[in-house]
Automatic annotation (TrEMBL):
This is Ig-like domain-containing protein. The lineage of its organism: Eukaryota, Metazoa, Ecdysozoa, Arthropoda, Hexapoda. It comes from the Eukaryota. It holds the Pfam family Ig_3. CDD domains: Ig.
Length: 270
C-alpha cells in the first residue's frame, strides 16, 4: 500500500560550512531536504520571506534541491527557507539564519563638516556598523602642514543603542592649525575599515561668508555642520494662567542650529 502525503521539508546550511565563520566574500550553499509522496513538482527558495530568483551574474544559483550564493555580502544575511509542493499540498521549512560577518563601515558614509570656535570643546562621534562588534578604533588628524595619530587618551569606545557602535573623540581647536580633517577607522576580527569616517573641522562662521574647498577622494555627498542657523518656524502664542497671573506663552519649532549652540530672542512690539 502506498500512502500519499504532502511534502515534509527541512533546510540546512551546507554541511561543509561553519555557520559562525561566514564572512563577506565567502561562497555559501543551502540544502533543501524533502520527503514526499508523490514526488514534489516545485521547490521555491526564500530570503527574508521574499522569493529568491536565479541570477547567474549576481552569483545566485538554484540547482534541484540546493541554493548557492557566491561571494556573499552583508546584505545577503538573514533568514532563508525553502518550500516544496506536490498535488497533496505545499510545505515550508523552518527558516535558517545566515550570519555574514563583515569589516566595519561608517553608519554616516559621507564626510561631515563641523564648524567650531577656537578653544571650543567638541565631542566628535564616529559610528560604524560591523559584525562582530568587538572593535578597536584609531583616529588621525590631517591638515596642510601635518598628519598624526590622535592619542587614545582623547577618545573612548561607545556602544550606541540606536544602531551601530562608535568612538567619541574629545577635541579642541587651540589654534588655527588645529583646524583640519579628523578621520576615524575601526577594526574587528574580519579586518580593518576600508574607508575611514571623515570629519572636517573648520572655523565657526566660515561657511556663512567664505568659500570652502573640500577635496573628496571618492565621489560622495557632504554633510555640513557649522552654517548660519535657520529661523524658528510655526510659532504660536497663547495665554496661560500661572500662580494667579496671566502669562503669554510662545511656542516655536527650532530651525537648523548650524552645528553650534543657539540662543533665541523674543521682541515685544507695543
Amino acid at each position: 500500500m502506498s500512502v500519499v502525503y504532502k511534502p515534509v521539508v527541512s533546510m540546512t546550511l551546507g554541511s561543509t560550512l561553519n555557520a559562525n565563520d561566514i564572512k563577506e566574500g565567502d561562497d555559501v550553499y543551502f540544502e533543501c531536504n524533502i520527503r514526499a509522496n508523490p514526488k514534489e513538482h516545485r521547490i521555491t527558495w526564500y530570503h527574508n520571506e521574499q522569493q529568491v530568483i536565479q541570477n547567474v551574474t549576481g552569483g545566485v544559483f538554484i540547482s534541484t534541491k540546493s541554493l548557492v550564493l557566491q561571494r556573499v555580502s552583508r546584505n545577503d544575511g538573514g533568514l532563508y527557507s525553502c518550500s516544496a509542493a506536490n498535488h497533496r499540498g505545499e510545505t515550508s521549512s523552518q527558516p535558517v539564519y545566515l550570519r555574514v560577518q563583515y569589516a566595519p563601515i561608517c553608519v554616516q558614509p559621507t564626510p561631515v563638516v563641523i564648524g567650531a570656535r577656537l578653544d571650543e570643546a567638541l565631542r566628535v562621534r564616529c559610528l560604524v556598523s560591523a559584525d562582530p562588534a568587538d572593535l578597536t578604533f584609531s583616529w588621525q588628524f590631517n591638515n596642510s602642514g601635518e598628519s598624526f595619530q590622535v592619542s587614545p587618551a582623547r577618545y573612548a569606545y561607545r556602544a550606541v543603542a540606536s544602531g551601530g557602535t562608535g568612538s567619541e573623540l574629545r577635541y579642541r581647536a587651540a589654534s588655527e592649525r588645529d583646524y583640519g580633517a579628523l578621520s576615524c577607522r575601526a577594526t574587528n576580527a574580519v579586518g580593518a575599515q576600508h574607508s575611514p569616517c571623515v570629519f572636517q573641522i573648520v572655523p565657526a562662521g566660515m561657511l556663512c561668508n567664505q568659500t570652502l574647498t573640500i577635496t573628496c577622494v571618492i565621489s560622495c555627498p557632504i554633510s555640513i555642520i557649522g552654517a548660519r542657523p535657520s529661523p524658528p518656524r510655526n510659532c504660536s502664542a497663547s495665554r496661560v494662567m500661572h500662580e494667579q497671573r496671566w502669562w503669554m506663552s510662545v511656542r516655536c519649532i527650532a530651525g537648523y542650529d548650524g552645528g553650534l549652540a543657539q540662543h533665541f530672542t523674543l521682541d515685544a512690539i507695543w
